Amino acid sequence: MLAGTPALNRRLREVHPVYRESARNLLQYLALRRHDIRPLQMRLAELGLSSLGRAESHVLATVNSVLETLDRLAGNRRKRANRPEREVDFARGQELLHDHTRSLLGDISSGRSVRIMVTMPGEAAEDYRLVHDLLETGMDCMRINCAHDDADVWLRMIEHLRVAEEALGRKCRVVMDLAGPKLRTGPVEPGPAVVKIRPNRDAFGNVSAPARVWLVADEALDAAPSHADAILPLPAEWIGALKVGDKLRLKDVRGAKRKLVVADAGPDGCWAEADRTVYIEPGTVLKCRRLKGRGAEVGEFPPIEGFLTLQCSDELVITRGHKPGRAATFDSAGRILTPATIGCTIPEVFEDVRPGEPIWFDDGKIGGVIEKIDDDRVVVRIRRARPVGEKLRGDKGINLPESRLKLSAMTPQDVEDLSFAVEHADVVELSFANSARDVALLQKHLERLGDRRPAIVLKIETRRGFENLPEMLLMAMRSPCCGVMIARGDLAVECGFERLAEVQEEILWICEAAHVPVIWATQVLESLAKDGIPSRAEITDAAMGDRAECVMLNKGPHVLSAVRVLDQILRRMQAHQTKKRSMLRELRLAHVFKSDERPAKQETRIGQSA
Questions:
Q1: Using CA of residue 550, residue 432, residue 148, residue 165, what is the dihedral sign?
Q2: Which of 193, 191, 398, 182 minimizes the C-alpha distance to 308?
Q3: Rounded to two decimals, what is the model's pTM?
Q4: What tens digit of pLDDT does each residue of 111-166 get?
Q5: Contact 592, 600 (CB under 8 A)
């Protein structure tokens, strides 16, 4: 750990002065972790000594402390040689991490040590109250995803935040996430323009609630006033003549005779109900007997979103061009005539992939192996899909975890967005950071754009990014402020879902050794944010976020509730744990039994604090 080479010493001189101690501690920690010290840990623990298992932020001081204690136990009073005059001890390690966290994520103003970051939905640009309430509920960092909306929308979000800060007397960091070279599927040919209207049925097949259909004038086709199972455009004059109770008869796409019954008629449209399943397409004629059989044709409406259905052993062809993808075609015997095809947003990856390499689609829902590569196409054999098949749509992520892609972490659009971020953001997130060269490129662009330098956060979301994390950290430490985000969505696909827990643990260790704050991200309380009810697993996962310095929530209709619940979880957990250290606060459960082993009379409520 002390045997620094000239090359390592040069690397230390290149980092920013605020990170000099931290970079040295990181290199010393990496030297320790090149050995399997598990047998030694067990022997140290048996002696009641530190097992070195919590040494990340002060590794050399911990090793020296153990050595000195062992010397004293052995009766050896010699002063150990080569001990540095100044080493990062326990207090200094904590101090450095706290200082770097404060520089990146702002001061603690809520009595909670772990910050909360919230991704802004598009409506935050129009809804000041949403931003105000998020800040009031506990948001510490506003995250703006540059993959969505534009500079005008982002600016309005930030302006709302500044007004809310003034009103509440709280500060909040602005974090801008550069989109990066996101590899996605191309468009798919749309399906037929047909709408299926189906009533709700009970377990016995009886209709428990009819389907609700909103009939509206062709020129006013828009969202219904409340939930509708279908919206049908029809001539305004014909709709205006309808009355409650009218029966609208038709033959659907299958030739089946069906009817809709008008339940409400108003100036803006009519509500009709269907108690049987009906398929309707543009041009379907609806007739009303009261209007002497005068009919009206259903107008145009959008076709069904296209998708490919893929099963294990299917062949999928990925093409270079922008031609919409098509589903596989079959002969009369069910044999494939033409395999399914789909494009990709960055066809340059064709040059970097090789046969035998794995490929994943849609956050790992579909997996395959590259079998053949031609000039204009890549042939994939599907190896992972549900027995009933998986639907692959356009604009879904593609992951190539074992391919050595030569894509730059910054696209021309990222460079353009960076100009806005430099002026308005406190932090810039570098998506798909894979190498020290990617980090250096971002630093170069920041230098070119002026003296104002937002902090840098490296998003670790690929296998290469994980493997190159120490090198990237040393490069990021050349800037005065940096951090790391564990982007668990793509990272799980890249490294394998079964390895995610192990990988995120290693990232936490490395970053703590570098005294670099970590943002715990992707799918935290996602069910709560989207549907209003969290799963039990999500609550446990959110509690594990206490190991990081910040936890990120994604947008959703119930994001305010998610912030409130996460705030409560983090406040409770910080009394029990910090990083890997269990905090032995008084447990009320410990008082349930007295010394005579008879149950105490007092009752303990679950979760009640001492």
A1: positive
A2: 191
A3: 0.83
A4: 789 999 999 999 999 999 999 999 999 999 999 999 999 999 999 999 999 999 99
A5: yes
By C-alpha distance, which of 463, 576, 588, 437 is closest to 114?
576
Mean pLDDT within 527-542 = 92
Residues in the chain: 610
Residue found by looking up tokens 């840098």 in the block: 456
Distance (Å, rounded) from C-alpha 111 to C-alpha 511? Answer: 24
Which is nearest to 25 in space by CA: 87, 112, 97, 102? Answer: 87
- pLDDT of 366 over the 90 cut: yes
User: For residues 559 and 566, what is the distance between their CA atoms, to the nearest angstrom?
Assistant: 10
Q: Is 23 helix (H, G, I), strand (E, B) or coil?
A: helix
Return the half-sphere exposure (C-beta side, CA atoms, 13 A cut-off) of residue 537. Answer: 3
State the DSSP string of 120-188.
Answer: PPGGGGT-HHHHHHHHHHT--EEEEETTSS-HHHHHHHHHHHHHHHHHHT---EEEEE------BB--B
pLDDT for res 80: 58
Six-digit token string for 424: 């308005």
The rounded distance, in Å, linking the Cα atoms of 445 and 61 is 38
Q: Look at the block and give the residue holding tokens 């002696």.
A: 47
